[in-house]
Amino acid sequence: MFRRKITEEIFKWKNSTGKKKALVIKGMRQIGKTFIVQAFANENYENVVYINFKDNESAKRIFDGDFVVDRMTIDISALIPGVHFVPGKTVIIFDEVQECANARASIKSFMLDGRYDIICTGSLLGIKGYNRKKNRGVPTGFEHIIYMKPMDFEEFLWAKGISEAVLDEVKRCFNEHMPVSETIHTAMLRYFREYMCVGGMPYVVDRFLSTNDMNVVLEEQRDILEEFKDDFGKHLDENEKEETDFTLLGRINRVFDSIPAQLAKENKKFTYAALEKKGRSENYQAAIQWLYDAGIINICYNLSNLSLPLEGNKADNIFKIYMQDTGLFVAMLEEGSAGRILSGELGMYKGAIYENIVADAFSKSGRSLFYFHKESGLEIDFITSLDVEVTLVEVKATNGNAKSANTVLKNKDQYGVNRCIKLSANNVGQVGEKLTLPYYMVFLLK
User: What's the rounded Cα separation, in Å, for the pair 334 and 349?
Assistant: First the structure.
């Protein structure tokens, strides 16, 4: 359907030398895992054996017995007419493999045998305890795991058909810290606002491009959000302590539903009191981890100080929660939010929306998320490392001053920071230690 960057990672896996591992692609629902894998397999293998464990109950029984490769391939060929197992020229796709834990456990036998490649996809593979009663073990050492996420802004532009010449010019201006032409700048800001509303779920993007109807987009997004909630309860079928699980399910839903209100606060720190009057961290840690492992949310941790490595300075109990896909976040807001974004009138959520899109972009580029807050009121939206140097990132929904960033930069003895990036609607510009970039260049911060 659309050009995706993950295809390059799949090529690297296929062409890797030495010990071959199965490829396991993890990611949230509806991000195009199946389409990408099938398209890659059909273009790069003579024989493709495809099993969807969500739709094919009979296939699950093949993996209830021993893991002798010849026995399994014979049973698969008997179940699926027309498939062929040719050594060195065949890939077996286990789609929705989270629905058949034993199929994933069989990977070790296939890899030791070495005749066939295996690609697995799954949307709940990171969930601790999912399918645990039927699980015969994860094949440690025999999987190469990559994480797939919704489309980033550059992939969205590819889908819209924006020319490589325009993208190259944007990249040149970014690299040289030069302003973009006003024509390109205005167009890119418009595309970025569209992306904020539509997000990166491929089917939603496709519906947007084919209809140009934001009401259709909203309907599709809300359907996906409801499907997420269905997923929250899936682990209940597999666990023995049902009462405990229903308690966890309620907490997962409360955390998920609270995200817009949590981010609407001036101090966007996640608070348990917003969930229940005497909400306690130990009661909700499992629920938050569940949503993170499912790929639905991103967690941004507060730092105790601004020094590398950032991971070593994070406070595990002080954090913000952002949605992985900003389009879905906008769909969680009140009616008409997308229209206000496109017109530039964001209302009370303006700061939350722009922070979410930056967190979204950082996550998709593989960055861990950190911010810096002190009780004095000083707060930096994001802290990251660029060229092995601590860098402040301020996100401005309006053209306000970055007061906290100025304070940090002026106090070198206390903070030791020499670099700041301000993301706003303004064009590229450099003043002293502060580099201003338009929002749409955030995907270039590698």
Answer: 10
DSSP 257-286: HHHHHHHHSSS----GGGTSTT--HHHHHH
Question: Which residue has 């593979």 as its token pair?
Answer: 125
pTM above 0.90, yes or no: yes
429 class by beta-carbon count within 10 Å (0-12 exposed, 13-18 middle, 19+ buried): middle
The separation between CA 329 and the C-alpha centre of its own chain, rounded to angstroms, equals 13
List the alpha helices (DSSP H) in 199-349. Answer: 202-211, 214-232, 242-264, 281-293, 326-331, 337-343
**Segment-wise mean pLDDT, segments of 10 residues, the chain, 446 residues:** 94 88 94 96 98 94 96 97 96 94 95 97 69 62 94 98 98 97 98 96 97 96 94 64 74 95 90 84 90 94 96 95 96 88 76 94 95 93 95 84 88 94 95 94 91
Task: Tokens for 202, please give them.
Answer: 């491929």
Task: Compute the distance between CA of residue 402 and CA of residue 422 in angstroms, rounded to an integer.
Answer: 8
Whole-angstrom Cα distance, residue 405 to residue 394?
Answer: 7
270 vs 320: CA distance, rounded Å: 5
Angle at 267 between CA 299 and CA 362, to 5 degrees: 35
- Give whole-number Cα distances, 26 to 7, 123, 138, 336, 370, in Å: 14, 6, 14, 33, 23
The Cβ-side half-sphere exposure at 131, using a 13 Å CA radius, reads 22
